[in-house]
Amino acid sequence: MTTPVQEVLEKLLALHDLDSKALRLEREIREGPAKLAGFQSQQAEIEKKKKAVGDRVVVLRAQIKLRENELRSTEQKIERTKKQASEVKTNKEFVAYRAELSNYQADADRLQGEILKILEVVEQAEAKIAAFDDEIAGVGKKVDAAQGDLDASLEGVKAERDELLAQRPELKKGIPGETMQTYERVRQSRGTGLAPIDGEYCSACMERLTRNDVFAVQNRSRLVICRGCNRILVPEA
Fold it and tell me: Does this model's pTM top 0.90?
């Protein structure tokens, strides 16, 4: 027995309503992690800045080490020159050693000054790293909170979606196989399998319909498929 068009359309509309709700829930499930991803991206950006400062600290400490080694070498030269100066026998030799000692001492003073300046920069950098750690911890709390909210929210959304999908087999009963295939094929490719008409046009793709097709859709006398998008056409809401 052929199913009346009116009954088929009612079943299709009910199925379309269910699928639209399920699609909305699917989008919510997919888009739900966006807020969480934003916090995670923020956290990663702070981590990146922290690493850049940390890498600079490594370089600065290496520079300090080099200067400390140079300073020790210079201090050794100072001690050696002082000893040599104490053993000279002429004033001319003493003056020469004193000039050499003065140069070594100037180098030592310069190196000590440079070390102190670099240490100051290192302290500032380490303060930045500590501040980054605080930021990371703060964002981490937001990540944890967002993850908890997301898990709880998505659990409810997924349950609602699954409940809807469980109703599909019953709604499909009574819809002719060929009609169902058309609906499913277009729904999978275009998101929706039905489209209401808008005057003489398909509201989904704006394909113009013949008067006979418009009349058939409005009076539900036969199923009409849009020639532009292949959706099954239904009367205006």
Answer: no
